[in-house]
Amino acid sequence: xxxxxxxxxxxxxxxxxxxxxxxxxxxxxxxxxxxxxxxxxxxxxxxxxxxxxxxxxxxxxxxxxxxxxxxxxxxxxxxxxxxxxxxxxxxxxxxxxxxxxxxxxxxxxxxxxxxxxxxxxxxxxxxxxxxxxxxxxxxxxxxxxxxxxxxxxxxxxxxxxxxxxxxxxxxxxxxxxxxxxxxxxxxxxxxxxxxxxxxxxxxxxxxxxxxxxxxxxxxxxxxxxxxxxxxxxxxxxxxxxxxxxxxxxxxxxxxxxxxxxxxxxxxxxxxxxxxxxxxxxxxxxxxxxxxxxxxxxxxxxxxxxxxxxxxxxxxxxxxxxxxxxxxxxxxxxxxxxxxxxxxxxxxxxxxxxxxxxxxxxxxxxxxxxxxxxxxxxxxxxxxxxxxxxxxxxxxxxxxxxxxxxxxxxxxxxxxxxxxxxxxxxxxxxxxxxxxxxxxxxxxxxxxxxxxxxxxxxxxxxxxxxxxxxxxxxxxxxxxxxxxxxxxxxxxxxxxxxxxxxxxxxxxxxxxxxxxxxxxxxxxxxxxxxxxxxxxxxxxxxxxxxxxxxxxxxxxxxxxxxxxxxxxxxxxxxxxxxxxxxxxxxxxxxxxxxxxxxxxxxxxxxxxxxxxxxxxxxxxxxxxxxxxxxxxxxxxxx
Amino acid sequence: xxxxxxxxxxxxxxxxxxxxxxxxxxxxxxxxxxxxxxxxxxxxxxxxxxxxxxxxxxxxxxxxxxxxxxxxxxxxxxxxxxxxxxxxxxxxxxxxxxxxxxxxxxxxxxxxxxxxxxxxxxxxxxxxxxxxxxxxxxxxxxxxxxxxxxxxxxxxxxxxxxxxxxxxxxxxxxxxxxxxxxxxxxxxxxxxxxxxxxxxxxxxxxxxxxxxxxxxxxxxxxxxxxxxxxxxxxxxxxxxxxxxxxxxxxxxxxxxxxxxxxxxxxxxxxxxxxxxxxxx
Lengths: 637, 280
Prior knowledge:
The complex is a heterodimer.
Chain A: H1 12-17, H2 19-37, E1 47-59, E2 64-68, H3 71-84, E3 91-95, E4 101-106, H4 120-132, E5 139-142, E6 156-157, H5 186-199, E7 205-208, E8 229-232, H6 236-239, E9 244-249, H7 253-263, H8 266-273, E10 279-280, E11 283-284, H9 291-297, E12 323-324, H10 346-354, H11 359-368, H12 390-396, E13 400-401, E14 403-406, E15 417-420, H13 429-449, H14 457-467, H15 472-475, E16 477-481, H16 487-491, E17 508-512, H17 513-518, H18 526-535, H19 541-559, H20 565-574, H21 587-601, H22 608-611, H23 625-628
Parallel strand pairs in A: 2-6, 12-13
Antiparallel strand pairs in A: 1-2, 1-4, 1-5, 1-9, 3-4, 7-8, 9-15, 10-11, 14-15, 16-17
Chain B: E1 7-11, H1 26-39, E2 41-44, E3 49-52, H2 57-62, E4 69-77, H3 82-96, E5 101-108, E6 115-117, E7 123-125, H4 155-171, E8 175-181, H5 185-194, E9 201-205, H6 214-222, E10 226-230, H7 239-244, E11 250-262, E12 267-279
Parallel strand pairs in B: 1-3, 4-5, 5-8, 8-9, 9-10
Antiparallel strand pairs in B: 1-12, 2-3, 4-11, 6-7, 11-12
């Protein structure tokens, strides 16, 4: 969740009064930082992954599995190492929303060598081991996107009651007790309360239940008129999910904009391919992904802003939650594909333009700043706009979108960065490393071959919904650019490849994930493109062997030969002897499912239908000396 | 017309923006790149050199400071000829417009033929049946590197002579790092022991990257030699290929490929081939 500002949180009423203050100064802060850093050049590739984990408590006697609310305690120990040796540790640990969650990243970012791809999995393994060592018997750290029985009675360890009628409760949820929110930092409860209060009611998340033979309607807790909805009512149902994110540094702001844009159409594709969360509140649903759940779980828009009643107090009708797919491209090449009207305050936009910021970036920032601050600390209200960036970060870091465009932090050696955020977390380090390496390799291929994946933003939005359908990776088709190599466009001098009237519809078509990843007659396929790139690079044998295994996993998931985690979970439930074809994931099914998942993640049992047969790689803790030796004076790390 | 010349050197220039086909075999990639070059050539009949019109290789290289880029190259030889090797390296330096290559890898696969030296100091093939390309080492999962010198008992001695050429370039600091492709562990070790400038790269076929012979792996680890992968055939270009390119009655003498990487960014900024062919 990024940098956590320490201090005393303000109430929603106080925060609301300061909303304009934060917006105004946030924008001034961006103008200043842009002026300082716009011309920053020559940064090397650095990148890192973020893996989120949940702590699970197994009770073998009663055959139950619960989330263990031990994160604060575990985190305190994990952070001791970092405090003792901030530059030497191999991993960094941060709190996440759930009191049962931790987030781990590599101690140092990876660098621009291909050999770095071979240390990712080893580092992930190390992180998992590090947490494991701190857990009592019966508890396990797992990288699972959504805990299947989150929000059912007694899902936490220790068990806590919900207090929906207590005015002092942050979430006031019927299902998700406040104790399941990370207690070690005030940010999480503050966000929960402020989002609820800003919205004027609890968040309202409804997922279609997977209708099996004996599914009982209405589903318990479903809202009036929606008998087939699994209803969720708290931020924790979304932000209490785990995901896989990665951030990479660009050589300058232009490259960062290019990568931000080019990876945008890949977001729904990677969401579908990484789908891992078909069960919510103990019910099998029609959705395979967390995305819409999180989106609705932090939807702080009022009824006016959502367009349900006419605008009176609020300034705008807003189309999306603050957690959603991005609304505009940032590069000049992307401009013509910005076909969704952007909402922003004209005076904020004008201030940014007057501050020397171009149209595309100005409208992006102005659009982020339609949101109110939902977490403000009294110590941070008054700032020096020329040096501080807290107000900018306040709004930036609570726009949780598929991509994030990140300016260099103040007074650091870090450059312009782009964050890729759609992926669901996978069960094993092997799979997570595969996804991470695939995306970072793809960025190198995009830059080397100057590939173009742009399609209209409205089509990316459409794809985001397709991606979350049950079994989307195998059954859905997605809008995708026909010719990413751009051969046809260059002949007539029309580099954007658009017809005279600006219509881009001939440039894209519907493709399956298999076609996008593996190619077809008229489309090269992302993995073949990566292989072409690799054949032109100096890759060491071990790294290449590992990368081939990763790419094979991606290819077989795409072709449908291997299951997504979501499909695997569904199968486990549907074939469980206790399953009564009623969509309900009972405590026992939940226990058996997670127990088996634990055995697979630890390598105790194989799972060829999920992982294939070749999932032991040559990943290693460090770059081989033979490669490091030839980097003298040219540090890529 | 360059087909009238006795010997041609065809330089594709930077083909990154020209050939974007994915997943091609290297020999098909080379064919396509030569084809676009020959279709729109700039020919210098005096030097026998053919370039591709509208090439941006030099802009791509000069866009960066020399120390910001890494230039690697590979020479493909199927005949044992010191002269061909020298010509290949000289042409690389000239085409790239640089004083030094960061690395150069030699791929030397002698044909199962006998050689005589003709009047030009070249080794001409007298009994030239070329080996079937792409036959050996293609079984996935089977232990790697082919029997490099099969059928040519003198191959290692020929290789040592060629290596001497590369050592001279290395001593003159025109090549920083020397590498050799496809050697079996014994041959590699022998080359290593006998050389003044040691190979620091051992290149093996990608198909074997998960099943590297332990002897080679251990030797490389012990001596800090980079074990790198390639997906190149033993014979990258043949007379048949040349005749399909309307270079009938030409045979290839040598071929090179170069790649220009932006250091520490994992970005490929230029790539191209140079081949030399002569009238039969």
